[in-house]
Every structure is written in C-alpha cells, then in structure tokens.
Amino acid sequence: MQSTAGTATPSPELLQPETKPSNEEPQGYVDVSDVPLALTFDTSGLPAQYGDPAPGIKITRRDAQDAPQRCSLGPAIITHAGRSGFVTAGHCSDNGADQYVQIGDRDFADDSLGAVVSVEVAVDARPVRDSGVIWTDEAADDGWVAGKWPVLDAMTVSDVQGLRPGTPICVNGAVSGVKCSPLIQADEQSIRFRPITTGGDSGAPVFVVDHDGRARLIGILGGEWVVDRPDGRTVPQWSEAMYLAPVLADLSAQPVLPR
Fold it and tell me: Gene3D superfamilies recorded for this chain (predicted)?
C-alpha cells in the first residue's frame, strides 16, 4: 500500500471510539488478530505475502520512473455474467501498468496478472474514485480470507454504517497480514478505524468476522491518514477503507463464495 498521505485535523469524538467492557464484542464480531495463520511472507527488505493470486497477496507494478510500487489484492469477485477478478485500490493502477504477483521468494520470479481497471462509483451521490479491478480467471475460486475464514457476503453500506464504534475491523494486507482494530466511524464516504496498516497494504480486503468464523466483506483498504506535527513528525490518525458494496453494484458482481 502506498499510504494515503494527508494532513487532517480530526475532531476529538472521531478519535475516541465508544469503549466496551472487555467481555463484550460489539454486535457479535470478533478480533482475529492473534489467530494462527499459514501465510507465506518473502524474505525481502519489507516482507510481504506472495504466491498464487489470492486476496491479501502482494501485487507489484512499475511507475512512470520505472520504480516498483506495491499494493495488495482485494476481495475476489464474480459478475453476473461469470467474469471473475480481484478488486483493489484505484491508485494502484498507474495508468494501466501491468500488475505482477510474486511466485517465488524473490521479486525476480514474477508472473503478470494484468492491469488494474479503475472503477468510479458513488456513495450517497458523492464520488468515490479509489477503487479498481483486475479481471482474471485466477479469482474464480478465492472465496476465503487468509485461507481461514469463508466469505459469507458483502455488507451493504447501510449495514456497515450501523456498526457500533469499537467493532473490530480487520484487514488482510500484503505487508501487515491479518490485523484488526476498533471502528472509529463509518460515514457516507468511507470507513475509518484505528491505524493498523502500512505501505503495501492498499487494496487489501477489509472485513469483520462473526462468532461462527465467517467473514463479511465491508471494504477495500485505501490507506492511512496522518497528521503533520510542528516538530516534523507525521502521526497516523486512522486507516481508511472504501465501501465494497457500491463497487460490486457498479460491476454487477458479488463476492466469490466458497464452493
């Protein structure tokens, strides 16, 4: 993920999610940050998930200066016409540059997956531009998150907005792996939660997990907002995701489900 750089002055109430007793999990969703997983990370300077295309796997493209830029594959989708692909962040497109998945432990062992096609959708009539899709048959069987949680569905925008502050929001990023943090706010534009992501995670699936161990997809990771301090430091304020449901509607698609 290329972090979404910005300068924000958040209100105090935005940064203080409602607190819950430790034995109460808002609306039945659980924090799965500490669940053991069989994820494969490479041995590069900034280790990232690699291997066959799947949600959370690193994708790499070359920018205009021929420098490698990394993002994450997002949820696997399939259209009503049977076309499959992975959604990801639109800013990962670099004007149609091919995206590569890493099939070996080092970057020289790559395989082209195709280009990101930008998707422009609207949430409550306001444009949300940071979403895209890579069309590929490789996505047709990826109905799981991190090989652990079967995808149940994609939540509607109104259902996501109905989640209480403090609900564990989870991400499967190429660099960060699976992490969860409390929801700050889900408004008409995006989903914000305590900062847990880093560079290379953009495009990753954002989800909640119920007590039955099923994943409900809610978004696509966009990046992390930071505040510039007078001393020159940048302090992360929140991670931010775009809603998935409007992207699916625009593409006449649904999440790939387990077979």
Answer: Trypsin-like serine proteases
